[in-house]
Amino acid sequence: AQTVTQSQPEMSVQEAETVTLSCTYDTSENNYYLFWYKQPPSRQMILVIRQEAYKQQNATENRFSVNFQKAAKSFSLKISDSQLGDTAMYFCAFILLETSGSRLTFGEGTQLTVNP
Amino acid sequence: DGGITQSPKYLFRKEGQNVTLSCEQNLNHDAMYWYRQDPGQGLRLIYYSQIVNDFQKGDIAEGYSVSREKKESFPLTVTSAQKNPTAFYLCASSIGLYPGYTFGSGTRLTVV
Fold first, then answer.
1. Set of chain B residues whose Cβ sits within 8 Å of the Cβ of A7
2. Per-residue pLDDT of chain B (112 residues; tens, 9 = 90+)
3. How far is residue A4's CA from residue B37's CA, in Å, rounded to a whole number?
4. In this complex, do A44 and B105 lie within 8 Å of one another by their Cβ atoms?
5. Which of A3, B18, B23, B29 meets the CB 3.0–4.6 Å disulfide criterion with B91?
C-alpha cells in the first residue's frame, strides 16, 4: 500500500517570505502522480500543483514550485512571496495509475499560517 | 457550470439513526469517491466507484454504504454501525484514469 507522510503539522511564515512544506511517500511503482492541494477555511479542496513521476523537471505554478526527488521519494512545496491568502491547510497526495482506476492517497496535512 | 454538488452542507444525526449524504456531478465523470476528514488527519477513502452499478470499499468502509445507480449520483449512507460518524465528508469525481479530481464543497456531519 502507498503511504504519504507530512512531518510538519503546523508552519508559519511572514508575508512576502518563502516557505517550504515537506512531503515523503512510499511506493514500489513507477507510474504515478503527486499533488499538492490547498484547503482554506472554506474547506474547499483546491489543486495547487501536480507532478508526473516520469518527468524530471520540477513543476511550477506562479509562486508555487516543487522539489521532486524521485529516488528519495520526496516531494516538497515551495511558496515564494507568501501572501495572507495562502493561509490554509496543505495536503500532499499521491495517485497510482492503475488499469482498474485511480485512488488518491493523502498525507496528514500541514497547517500554514501567513502572518502580516 | 459543471461541478459537484454536495448536500446538505450541515447535517445533524441522533445516535442510532441512519443518514444519507448526497453527491451529484454534471461533469460526465466516470469515477466518484467519498472521503472522510477528521481534525489532524488527512482525507481517508471510504468508498469509490469506477462505473455505474459497481463500487469498492476504501480504507474505512465499516459503518458506511453507497450506491451508484446513475452516473451522476453517488450517495453515502452513514449507518448506526458507524461508531464515530462526526466528521467532514468530501465527495470527488474524476474521468477514469485521468488523475485529476474535482471536489465538492463537503458536508459536516455531527452526531447529537
1. none
2. 679 999 999 999 898 899 999 999 999 999 999 999 998 788 999 999 989 999 999 999 999 999 999 999 999 999 988 889 999 999 999 886 667 789 999 999 999 8
3. 15
4. yes
5. B23
Q: Which residues of A touch B58 (CB under 8 A)?
A: 103
Residue A40 contacts B where some CB pair is shorter than 8 Å: no
* Interface list for A 70-89 with B (CB within 8 A): none
A9 close to B (CB below 8 A): yes
A52-109 residue pLDDT tens? 998 889 999 999 999 999 999 999 999 999 999 999 999 999 998 775 567 889 999 9
Say if B40 is an interface residue toward chain A (CB within 8 Å): yes
Spatial CA neighbour of A49 closest among A98, A12, A86: A86
Torsion of CA A58, A60, A65, A66, to 10 degrees: -30
Residue with cell 516531494: A75
Contact A101 B42 (CB under 8 A): no
Residue B77 β-bridge partners = B20, B65
Separation CA B108–CA B100 (nearest Å): 24
